[in-house]
Design goal:
The protein has 312 residues and is an alpha+beta fold. It has six helices and 14 strands. The protein starts with a helix and ends with a strand.
Length: 312
């Protein structure tokens, strides 16, 4: 957030030095000003939820006819007849359709929710009616299923692939636009301030373009269907205690014991929900039966969390 704010201030400085007639300050305002707005919104949400730290969660059991959805927007009927509105991505939405349970933090009109097993929060509001146009959510069976037929896992990977593709295309477009702006300026026509600004745009554009291409390639890998038909349960002992932090990926190391008695050291890169599950239960679920020394995909049956397991 600090770097984004500094780049917006650089746009202000360029406008003061060269005036508002040039397009360069507007490039900074349009690109980094939008990012600053997003960071400000995230910070406001964090400050809101921080005021609820220390308060207990309330369990909300969803009635059979008390769950309605419209895209990612979810409406849950409360016992008093009002409705809790929130947004959930594909995997958590399918999980909720089967598990019919939420944890709610807060007692006012604005609350925060999370499905069982999740280590993240989503903001929600209490309203008198569900989202307009929403329809009853179909029940999803919660019996154990192999990875290739797990509906929660399938929906979660589909969301990850879409998010990676949209992020990659956005980064690539921003990077290409920045490089195009720099290449359109005639050599020798830029002043000192313009030259500094163009240099920053060129460097940032190259970084954005590279990140975009890498993210697009990653989205194509995520789109590959899961072919494993079994789950393998490993018992694990971590090297250090798990300490949750506000980041998307966590790396865990320790010892893992296979069902056949083999033991190996391992490194697990996982989202925070999977990392917390492994730390609390001492279990690690792998998709399929990996040969000795080979990496494998990790998860939890019926829950939207994933990771990468690698023996070391």
């Amino acid at each position: 957030m600090g770097l984004t704010g500094a780049l917006v201030l650089l746009g202000v400085l360029l406008s003061v030095i060269d005036g508002w007639g040039r397009a360069l300050p507007y490039v900074y305002f349009g690109t980094f000003g939008g990012l600053l707005v997003i960071w400000t919104y995230v910070l406001s949400l964090y400050l809101s939820v921080r005021g609820l730290f220390g308060e207990p969660y309330h369990r909300l059991d969803v009635a059979p006819d008390g769950l309605r959805t419209k895209g990612s927007r979810v409406s849950v009927r409360l016992p008093d007849g009002r409705w809790l509105r929130t947004r959930l991505t594909g995997g958590p939405r399918v999980q909720l359709a089967g598990e019919r349970r939420l944890w709610v933090l807060g007692t006012g009109r604005r609350v925060f929710v999370r499905p069982p097993g999740a280590m993240w929060l989503r903001s929600g509001r209490i309203e008198d009616a569900p989202v307009s146009g929403s329809v009853p959510a179909a029940f999803v069976a919660r019996h154990p299923a192999p990875p290739s037929r797990d509906p929660v896992l399938t929906a979660h990977r589909a969301f990850q692939a879409r998010r990676a593709a949209v992020t990659g295309v956005t980064f690539a477009v921003l990077g290409a636009a920045g490089i195009a702006v720099v290449s359109s300026v005639e050599a020798g026509s830029a002043g000192l301030a313009d030259a500094a600004g163009l240099g920053g745009i060129a460097g940032g554009g190259a970084v954005f373009l590279m990140l975009g291409l890498l993210t697009i390639v990653g989205s194509l890998r995520i789109r590959r269907p899961i072919t494993e038909d079994t789950w393998s349960e490993l018992r694990v002992a971590l090297d250090t205690p798990f300490v949750p932090r506000a980041r998307t990926a966590v790396r865990l190391t320790g010892w893992a014991s296979y069902p056949d008695g083999r033991q190996t050291r391992f490194r697990l890169v996982a989202d925070i929900s999977l990392a917390a599950n492994v730390a609390v239960t001492g279990q690690l679920w792998l998709m399929g039966w990996p040969p000795p020394g080979k990496p494998a995909k990790a998860g939890v049956p019926g829950y939207p969390c994933l990771g990468s397991f690698r023996p070391v």
